[in-house]
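Supplementary Note 2. Why include the ligand at all?

Several targets in our set were suspected to adopt different conformations when bound, so apo predictions alone were not considered sufficient. For every target with a known small-molecule partner we therefore ran a joint prediction. The input for nicotinamide-adenine-dinucleotide is given below.
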Amino acid sequence: MSEKDQRVAIVTGAAQGIGAAIAAELAADGVKVVVTDINGAGAEEVAARIDGVAKQLDVSDPDRVSAVVGEVVAELGRIDILVNNAALVPLTSWDDITFEEWRRVMSVNLDGVYLITHAVTDVMGKAGYGRIVNIASNTFVAGTPDCAHYVATKGASIGLVRGLAGELGKKGITINAVAPGIIASEGVLSGPHAAGFDYVVPMQAINRRGVPSDVAPAVAFLASEKAEWITGQTLVVDAGHTRN
Ligand SMILES: NC(=O)c1ccc[n+]([C@@H]2O[C@H](COP(=O)([O-])OP(=O)(O)OC[C@H]3O[C@@H](n4cnc5c(N)ncnc54)[C@H](O)[C@@H]3O)[C@@H](O)[C@H]2O)c1
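The joint prediction is reproduced in token form.
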């Protein structure tokens, strides 16, 4: 494939975990991946492994989002795929969620999705082509406790997919969500969520822990040419934990 024909993807929060696995899966499919993360050094490491391009990016920073999208267009000439993966994943009971924490989770998980999606759809709209995948969560289906702000943002992410598909479809852009179950990412393994495996794995139809590479192929499919007839949908990838 010539460089001119190579599709270009931006993946947010891709320095580790599910985002890094998605970046690797897209690269294996021949996509040039822009690995972005608030952790610039981590993004560099992932990009080096997959022959990608690294950009330090806090998705909640409007100026930086607009600068990075402009740089990608200037340097690579196109943006075919956006994967909205970056998120804060807190575990806080309702009584302890301060308004400050609420706002911070909204600003990364929801405002961040708005900012980069808005910037990228401008580029995709001019090209008449695009694939957007939001990483939601099966906590929205399960109603998982002790993270109500997080669950609210993931429901909003699915709401955005449903609400935006019609406008974007007219421009040749699809937008879908992938909602993973509990996955052994670096973030989960290093925090209190890790205790959730003991409770959740027995409820899954497939009784083993999920890993980031269990999620990535579903995202790559929705980001592919083959998924042209699928938009406004949510694909739950949770080993059958939830079944709706
Ligand atoms: N791991 C799970 O169990 C699970 C389950 C369902 C959904 N998800 C979703 O999958 C996605 C990835 O989760 P993960 O478990 O791999 O997370 P993780 O915590 O391992 O990695 C998240 C990445 O996002 C980056 N990040 C944080 N704030 C950022 C910001 N403001 N701007 C840009 N990057 C930022 C972090 O630096 C990190 O590299 C998230 O959207 C999460 O909600 C995860």
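The pocket of nicotinamide-adenine-dinucleotide is lined by residues 12-13, 15-19, 37-39, 42, 57-60, 85-89, 108, 112, 135, 137, 180, 182-183, 185-188 (CB under 6 Å). The beta strands are 8-11, 32-37, 53-56, 81-84, 130-135, 173-180, 234-237. Comparable summaries for the other entries are listed in the accompanying table.
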